[in-house]
Structure formats: structure tokens, C-alpha cells
Amino acid sequence: xxxxxxxxxxxxxxxxxxxxxxxxxxxxxxxxxxxxxxxxxxxxxxxxxxxxxxxxxxxxxxxxxxxxxxxxxxxxxxxxxxxxxxxxxxxxxxxxxxxxxxxxxxxxxxxxxxxxxxxxxxxxxxxxxxxxxxxxxxxxxxxxxxxxxxxxxxxxxxxxxxxxxxxxxxxxxxxxxxxxxxxxxxxxxxxxxxxxxxxx
Length: 200
Known about the structure:
By secondary structure, the chain is α/β, with parallel strands linked by helices. It contains ten helices and six strands, in the order E-H-E-H-E-H-E-H-E-H-E-H-H-H-H-H. The protein folds into two domains: 2-134, Rossmann fold (3-Layer(aba) Sandwich), CATH 3.40.50; 142-197, Arc Repressor Mutant, subunit A. It has helices spanning 11-24, 36-46, 62-72, 87-95, 108-119, 127-134, 142-152, 157-164, 168-182, 187-196; strands at residues 2-7, 27-33, 50-54, 77-82, 100-103, 124-125. It starts with a strand and ends with a helix.
């Protein structure tokens, strides 16, 4: 028997999965969550074999929730459901140690078999999801992404430098490189361009 916590803000989909997964395999749904904060609380409370979590949720999103859970339960097995598996998001999820990625439109029987595989210690990324990851065309370095993310959040160069423990001049160099790579004129345009391409 595999225990799961289901986290998805779409009530209809979440309820359908809660009803269908136990019918498809040896699965017990311990709890449901409708946002990231609830997902964190339910997972830490119930300690499921597998957390099945939607990527895009209000407030704390799927990635934010997994990051919080990982701090307490570093070995928590996670299956992430997504409609738009963009390369930057997939890269972040894999860095967080997410073991499985499945499209939200997948058949419940398929999701059940993936849950069983993850519980058995395997990894799974749906082919359509991994195809997007291979197509990743982000030219920015991790540091350039860091400074653009700070820019997008409204931080000044000085604030960004303090936050990342860098010199002001170093931050300006990273921003200049990012502006060249995105062919934009200002750091705010570069941040917007990077966000639109899901590089942040």
C-alpha cells in the first residue's frame, strides 16, 4: 500500500484523483491540499510515501512548497503534476530533487503506475515533459539569473549586491551580460524578457 498526499488548487481535478487513484492501485490518500502552504502542512503532518503536487498553485507554488518540505524531510518522494512543463521550471524542480514529472492530462492509471515506480525508488519524467527540457535554450548563467530575479523583485543594484554577497560592480557586470544576451536596453527589460521565457 502506498500513501499519498494530494495537492492541487483545482478542486474538481483533486477530488477526481482522490477518488480514482485508490481504484487504480494500492493507494491510500491521507490528505488533500488546495495550495502550497496546505501541502507543506499536510506533508509534514502525514509523512506520505509520495507527495503528488501541482506545480502552479496560488500563494506558495509547487516548487516553493517542495523547497520548504525538503528542509524538514530531505528524502520526501515527490511527483509533480504540470500543464506547462517549461524548461526553466523543470530544471528548478530537478535541482530540488523532484523524482517524477507527469502531465496533468495523464490518465489516472498512468499516474498510479508512476506513483508506484517512485515509491519503488525509480524516477519518472513523461516524454513530452523531458522533450521540453531538452529544448532548453537559456543562455544565462546561474549568477545572471540570480541578479535578474532580484531585479524583477524590485531590488536595486546595491540591495542585490548585499543580498547575493557580491560587489556592486560585479552585479552591474552580470546585469550588463544579461542585457547583451537578451538584447534588451535596461535591466528591467532583461528581467522581463527572462521571466517571459521562463528562465527565472
